[in-house]
Amino acid sequence: MLYSDEVLEHFRNPRNMGEIEDADGVGDVGNPVCGDMMRLTIKVDPETERIVDVRFQTFGCGAAIATSSIITELVKGKTVREALEVSNKTVVEKLGGLPPVKMHCSLLAEQGLVAALEDYFRRHPEKQAPPELQEKARRLRNVDPHGPGEKSAQVDEEDSDE
Ligand code: FES
Q: Is the CB of 107 under 6 A from ligand 1?
């Protein structure tokens, strides 16, 4: 089987689908190569900075839908800083793996999350954005959108000195 049971489960029954109308952060991302797009919206408790709600809309392949779905489960209830620790590698591991040719789909989910977090801090200039957020956003922008298979899943560990 090309896809794990977890991938198929999240593809068939995606969690947290939709859009938060009065979101505190909105991340719109797309892959220019395949044309897939994702919007991730977050609601953040102003006191605790916990992500109390998260929703996604993904116009894309099955792997993009599954990775979008699971990333919402992974970050819900976490603080915005804890959410930064969730990478596309975490997503792929939780899904029990993805075929190498589909690794770039997991990057779309991470890019959506990071874009939503960036937007959150843009809307809340009184809050100090963690330096790791800018660093992560910069590295994700430099990733090859063609997705060089498994290499693209290692974005968190590579190119850190660019
Ligand atoms: S093929 Fe485009 S995100 Fe999966």
A: no
- Does residue 37 line the site of ligand 1, with CB under 6 A? no
Q: Which atom number of ligand 1 is nearest to the Cα of residue 34?
A: 2
pLDDT tens column, 57-91: 999 999 999 999 999 999 999 999 999 999 999 99
pLDDT digits (tens, 9 = 90+) for 114-131: 999 999 999 999 999 999
Annotation marks residue 34 as catalytic: yes
Looking at the CA of residue 105, tell me the nearest atom of ligand 1: 3
User: What pLDDT sits at residue 143?
Assistant: 87
Phi-psi region of 118 (alpha: psi -120 to 50; beta: other; left: phi over 0): alpha
How far apart are the CA of 127 and the centre of ligand 1, in A? 34
CA separation for the pair 50, 5 (Å, rounded)? 30
**Domains of the chain from N-terminus onward:** 5-154 (3.90.1010.10)
User: Which pLDDT belongs to residue 148?
Assistant: 54
Torsions phi, psi for 38 (to 5 deg): -145, 140
Paired tokens of 100:
């190498």
Q: What is the pTM of this model?
A: 0.90
